[in-house]
Structure formats: structure tokens, C-alpha cells
Design brief:
The protein is α/β, with parallel strands linked by helices and about 325 residues long. The protein has 2 domains: about 220 residues, Spore Coat Polysaccharide Biosynthesis Protein SpsA, Chain A (Alpha-Beta Complex); about 70 residues. It has 10 helices and 8 strands. It has an 8-stranded mixed sheet, with helices on both faces. The longest helix has about 35 residues. It is elongated, with a radius of gyration of 24 Å.
Amino acid sequence: MQMVKNRLSIVVPCYNAEKNIEQVVCQAEKILRDNHIEDYEFVLVNDASKDNTFSALQRMAEEKAYVTALDLAKNSGQHGALMAGFHYVTGEYVVTCEDDGQTQIQAIGRMMDKLQEGYDVVAAKYMQRPQTSPFRSFGRYMAKQMSVAMMPRPKGISVPIFFLARRFVIDEMTKYEHSYPYVTGLLLRTTHNIANVEVEQLERLSGNTGYTFRKLVRLWLNGFTAFSIKPLRIATFMGFFSALTGIVYAIMIVFRRFVFNDVVAGWSSLISITLVMSGLMLCVLGMIGEYVGRIYMCINRTPQFVVREIVSEQVERTDTYVKHREDGAI
């Protein structure tokens, strides 16, 4: 899509958001006008919702020339839906937003000001979040710790889904055509010129999160293996450590046998060592298998997403069945 100078594009992945999305868009419009942002567009992506979300998106796209509605053929997960939206933005600046009203859109003005200081990306740093279930909190914590440990970034920088980026960053991210896109990893491999703006995560307007604990674990594994080889290095270290431990233990047994002659041959110790080593080998093989499986999926050209329909005055109808890469349904 051709870039329009000074336009702000807002990409919103939508899943079962029929009751929320129109209110989210209306609130965002008011906030944009209050911040004197007159040239903007919304790219709303229906991630194969189970309710009538796309009907709401279609209605808005037909009523408002600055709204583009995308309908995905199957659920691609939040990150896959964002990547779909990124392919259809026309603005010089791109901001992401959630569909449940939890994104503090009021921060866009501060984010734009921060971006003008020379940064490529300005991301939200949540200082307070609403209470969630222990499983949800644990999954979110694990995803954050994984991201920090596996992906190099400026010290103290947080990169959640709510961020504002220059167009060249988004264009670089959309060059990634393999399966399992991970937006945070794509951002961090594109630029480290990132700043944070402190915000508060708001309460959900209605409904429940689309992320179950299982989906959070999948997201965690996706980020864990998509943009880092550190897990393989950890596996190598574990192998060396286990081998060294085995050698030291063997030396101790030989020493005790010839010096103290008190070595007792025992079934328990043998079985314990066998179980530990077998479990370690299976973990390492599983980790390698995860990488090999992802390589296979990439070679197999599994799409990140498939667009079923586009409703927009800005996109030609010949693009209606354009296919891109699909995320494998987080």
C-alpha cells in the first residue's frame, strides 16, 4: 500500500469483539481529534471470530471511508492478525490497539511526542494492570521473562502489543513471510531505538480474554523458539554438564572402591541415574524437534494468515483473496 505522509494507522486485531469494537473505535476517534490528529485510518482485522464481529466491522467500513475491515479465513492468533493488518496500512505512523477497551488510547499523544524525539518505536510500559486469574498472570509473566531472556533489547525496555512505530519498521516486519510470527521479536530484530511511555491498562469493557492458559503457553513457546537459538545452547550446556557430572561420579565410585572398599551396588541409584539422564535426553531431543518442526512448517510455506474478504474504499477488490503467511492459530 502506498504511504500517506503524516497519516496515523491504527491496527486492531478483533476476536469475539462484537460488543466492544464500535465503542473502542468511537473512543479512539474522539481521543485522536482531541490530540489534533486529523488524518488517520483504522485497519480492523476479524480473526475468525465465533460471533458477529465481522458484521460490525463491515458496517463501520461501509459507513466510514477511513475504516478497512479484513476477515480472516481461520483463526491466526493475535500476532497473525496484526501481521495481516500491517499489510494494509497506508499511514506514515502505525499504532496497535486491543479490541476490548483495555488499551489506554489517551497515551497516543504522549507516544507521538516521544517518537518525534528521534525514536523508531514507542511502546507502552504498563505500571498497573487489572486483576486476572493466576493462570493468566503466570502465562503473561512467563512470556515476559522469556522475551527478556531470549531477545536482546535496550535495558529496561518493555515491548507489549500496544506500541507506535514508524512506517519503515512495519514495512521491515512484513517482509517476514514464515510461519509463527512473533510481533515483539520482529520489532526487536528490526530496531533497538525504542522508548517507553508509562500507561495504565484499563478494565475490559465486556467479555473475557481470548487467551486461555494453553494459548499463552503456545505464545510463550513461539517466542521462545522463533527468534533465538539460546534454547539450543542451553541444551548443549545441559549435555556437557550431565556428561561432566557422570565422569565425576564415575571417578568417585572408582576412588571409593579402591580406597575405602565401601561401594554398595544398588538398584535404586542405578535407576535414578538412568531416569535423570533419560529425561534430560528426551528434553533436549524435544527442544531440537521443536526447531526442526518449525523449519519444516516454514519450508512447507504454511501461511501466517489468509484474508477471506476486505471491505474498504482504500483497497481494490482485486486484493480480496490475497494470501499471506499464517500463524498456526495460537
